[in-house]
């Protein structure tokens, strides 16, 4: 007997959306911080690098919000997005300490 693939549902939608907003938001800001560090953004909001980072953050966050419903449970969404957030901020802090 073969096992059928699990279907997606919206039973845990509150946990999934809160994970996308909080942990996904932190993850997108960590990506922005890492990329800003790597490309040498100077913090001037009128510069091309700052504008690119600002728009990239909005696009990434919308992608995370849209894809949060692909997780089977809210707990899995929190684990993946929260773990990614912690890992990316840790990488940023390590990169900042080394330079």
From TrEMBL:
Q: Which key words are in the record?
A: Membrane, Transmembrane, Transmembrane helix
Write out the transmembrane intervals: 20-40, 52-72, 78-98
What is the name attached to this protein's record? Iron uptake protein
Lineage of the source organism? Bacteria, Pseudomonadati, Pseudomonadota, Alphaproteobacteria, Acetobacterales
